[in-house]
Design brief:
single chain; about 400 residues; mainly alpha; Growth Hormone, Chain: A; 17 helices; transmembrane transporter activity
């Protein structure tokens, strides 16, 4: 049996919803920290005297380590109150942002980003399963959307604001600002997050047992395809908009803001509909992501065309986190924390693999070949989503052998 998570029903309902919001702010803080280099990539590369591909490792390295740290944090936490774990992780996030802001070179920056990876894996693994502990069963969908709304909001506010600060004050100030914000989130957690005890710790064997669930395996494969395909292209969205669409630098922050707003819309739309038809929702998301690179390839040389592609991109990817998390929770309702850590691990492998592989293609062949490979990977995701949707419609078991 997996870890038993005690619900926090003893606290007043309003304070529990405030706790949900605080958890969403934690995901916002850590994802914004992880994604800051996306909006700062070219300026960071120039400042640190390195290539865009190597600077992209500031995204791929912490993501890869987050994949390793997510199950480790859950296992190592044992029976420790999850509120305490979140506080320590947020404190480490403050330190990681300060170290990034002060990094004199690419090696020291990547060293600081290792700590970001630890925080990323831990916060996501713990936060992902808290919705069912903080609200009633009828409100889990909305609470999950709020928690993972932090991911979408990181695109709306975090990445564009980081790009804005980087353009006008320098990229180091963007990381300094995130350090201050992380202090604020830590303070709110100290005030509003109730006790979150567990009655049983998690073992490695329980992870192995859960991987025998075909619905869990299907969700993990789909997570890898969608996230890797997305980050192959999104890691280089700034050079994509500058070099292919020929936007001026002053428009990048605004364009990323538009992308982020549509991402928030996609997040909450998915939170509303995914509880009824999870696989069909994932199919819609997969198709939206699949068509995005194709739009860039066909009409991305025009401002209006690339703008339309960016809106579709935000709308589709905004629903990825909550849609996949909802699928994983349905697939393993009695082992949510384990399922969450597996999902977070594969999610971040997708970020790391997509960013790294995309960087290799961009450095050697350019942006256009990278978009074609991205489209191929996302087509595979759409086909898997179609398979899952057909089984959901017929109410037949999912079988996926690896």
């Amino acid at each position: 049996m997996s870890a038993e998570l005690k619900p926090s029903a003893v606290a007043p309902e309003n304070s529990l919803w405030m706790a949900v919001i605080c958890v969403g702010l934690a995901t916002f803080a850590v994802v914004t920290t992880e994604m800051l280099p996306v909006g700062l990539l070219t300026t960071m590369a120039e400042s640190l005297n390195t290539s865009n591909g190597k600077a992209g490792m500031a995204i791929s390295l912490p993501a890869l380590l987050a994949a390793l740290f997510a199950p480790f944090v859950v296992i190592a936490s044992g029976g420790t109150d999850r509120r305490i774990i979140l506080r320590w992780l947020l404190l480490l996030l403050v330190i990681a942002n300060i170290a990034s802001a002060l990094a004199p070179g690419i090696i020291s920056l990547l060293a600081a980003r290792i700590l970001v990876g630890f925080c990323m894996g831990g916060i996501w693994a713990i936060a992902g399963g808290l919705s069912s502990r903080l609200v009633t069963a009828q409100s889990i969908g909305l609470a999950t959307a709020i928690v993972f709304g932090g991911v979408a909001a990181a695109s709306v506010v975090g990445v564009p604001l980081g790009a804005f600060i980087g353009d006008y004050a320098g990229w180091r100030w963007a990381f300094g600002g995130m350090a201050l914000f992380s202090v604020l989130v830590l303070t709110l957690h100290w005030i509003f997050i109730p006790a979150l005890p567990v009655t049983h710790s998690v073992s490695f064997r329980q992870f192995v047992q859960l991987l025998q669930n075909p619905r869990v395996r299907a969700g993990l494969v789909l997570t890898l395809l969608l996230v890797a395909g997305h980050f192959m292209a999104f890691t280089f969205v700034r050079p994509l908009l500058l070099d292919m669409a020929l936007f001026e630098v002053k428009w990048i922050g605004i364009l990323l803001l538009v992308y982020g707003i549509t991402g928030v819309v996609g997040n909450f739309l998915t939170g509303i509909v995914t509880t009824r038809r999870a696989a069909l929702t994932l199919l819609a998301i997969s198709l939206g992501l699949m068509f995005t690179p194709l739009l860039f390839l066909s009409i991305g040389h025009y401002h209006t065309g690339s703008g339309a592609a960016l809106i579709l991109w935000g709308l589709a990817y905004g629903g990825v986190s909550v849609g996949l998390m909802s699928w994983m929770m349905e697939a393993a309702p009695r082992a949510i924390e384990i399922a969450t850590s597996l999902y977070v691990g594969v999610f971040n492998i997708g970020i790391a693999g997509g960013s790294w592989f995309g960087g290799q293609i961009v450095d050697r062949f350019g942006l256009v070949p990278n978009l074609w490979v991205t489209a191929a990977i996302l087509t595979a995701a759409a086909l898997l989503s179609l398979y899952l949707s057909l089984h959901e419609r017929k109410n037949t078991p999912v079988t996926l052998k690896l």
